[in-house]
């Protein structure tokens, strides 16, 4: 498998696309814990912190398929980069406005989640054009999945580094700027600029018409609730047991 990954990475544009997508998705991987740490630094309650993190997650789940449809219609550069800039701007607004006005905080966090660009889906759409051969494409999908898991592990560590060196506010700003740079790296690449969605008649429900997929999504809903709660619960647990690290 390792040799297969190396074979994929040797393909032209592969490293750039994978690295840009991972960096571009850092805001998505770090938002829950970054939001919690920022709210706590602002003096907000854990209830508020958890609610804001949940709003970001739900908005992200709603926005991804909608933005994906727009990518199909208008191409990756015209959707991905503006979405990344708007999402980062909304999170910057949250970082500067703070939690003094709850409605503003909820709107800013919700907008940031809703406008998060669908970079992972975009990368999966690019692999067939970058690689030649179905086996290599499937290997790329597997490598991509592994890389995403690594990113969701490294991301929270980057948050804590930023918080330790600077502040929770700086963590929100720095990681979202990196996200924009990652998205920019992807959308200016030749494969992203050249990609076009295959012509088809799309039903408004899309793949959700599949009963099997609905069952799978239902199962992963509960998996996601469990995983998402760990990120939020770990901060008050650490506070209660005196473990800032």
Please tell me about this protein's structure.
There is one protein chain. The protein is mostly helical and 245 residues long. It has two domains: 198 residues, MFS general substrate transporter like domains (Growth Hormone, Chain: A, Up-down Bundle); 37 residues. Helix content is 80%, strand content 0%. α3 runs parallel beside α11. The mean pLDDT is 90.
Secondary structure elements and their pairing?
Layout: H1 2-9, H2 14-24, H3 26-41, H4 46-74, H5 77-97, H6 102-114, H7 119-130, H8 134-165, H9 168-187, H10 190-194, H11 211-240
Helix pairs in contact: 1-8, 2-7, 2-9, 3-4, 3-8, 3-9, 3-11, 4-5, 4-6, 4-11, 5-6, 5-9, 7-8, 8-9
Give the CA-based shape.
globular
- Report the structural category: mainly alpha
Question: How many strand segments?
Answer: 0
**Low-confidence runs (pLDDT<50, min 5 residues)?**
none
Tell me the name of the CATH class of the largest domain. Answer: Mainly Alpha
Q: Write down the Rg.
A: 19 Å
| CATH architectural type of the largest domain | Up-down Bundle
Provide the CATH topology of the largest domain.
Answer: Growth Hormone, Chain: A
Considering DSSP H and I runs of 4 or more, what fraction of the residues is helical? over 70%
Note the run of SSEs as H and E.
Answer: HHHHHHHHHHH
Note the gap between the termini.
Answer: 36 Å
- Give the DSSP E fraction (strand runs of 2 or more residues): under 5%
By DSSP (H or I, 4+ residues per run), the number of helices equals 11
Number of domain modules = 2
- Assigned CATH superfamily of the largest domain: MFS general substrate transporter like domains
Report mean pLDDT, rounded to a whole number: 90
Largest sheet: none
